[in-house]
Amino acid sequence: MSTNVLLVDDSPTVRNILKIYLMNLKVSIVEAEDAQRALQLLRLVPVSVVIADINMPNMDGITFVKEVRASAQPQVQKVPVILLTAEKGEDLRQRGSAAGANAFIQKPVSHDELTKTVRQFLSGG
User: Which residue positions does 4-aspartylphosphate occur at (predicted)?
Assistant: First the structure.
């Protein structure tokens, strides 16, 4: 079974950068342009890690995490979610953690931080 990483960001440019950064991890990339599509994909495709932007139209990343954690499917409920944000400040991180986010990465995303964080969850950390 391949290891799937779901990228959720309304910016195709950001998704492309993340794909390039993750190439050396030998994972399959699944993409969603918004949280609604990501929730649909999570029901259909086994995913090992989700990387989602906090600021997205229609449903923000924090609400997305709450929806993931409330899923009727145990494998969806348990998937690690890494949130990306350009905003600084503890309030957002606290709200994300309370919603069930597993990690946060500050934008602009660094290659090293992204691969280190994703590896941690792929290895069961």
Answer: 53
Q: How far apart are the C-alpha atoms of 102 and 116, rounded to whole Å?
A: 14
In 3D space, the residue among 40, 29, 38, 76 whose CA is nearest the CA of residue 56 turns out to be 38
Range of the domain at 47: 4-110
**Domain containing residue 61: CATH number:** 3.40.50.2300
Distance in angstroms (rounded) separating the CA atoms of residues 86 and 4: 25
Confidence (pLDDT) at 2: 76
Segments in the chain forming alpha helices (H): 12-22, 35-44, 61-69, 74-77, 90-99, 111-122
pLDDT of 1 > 60? The answer is no
CA nearest 62: which of 90, 81, 89? 81
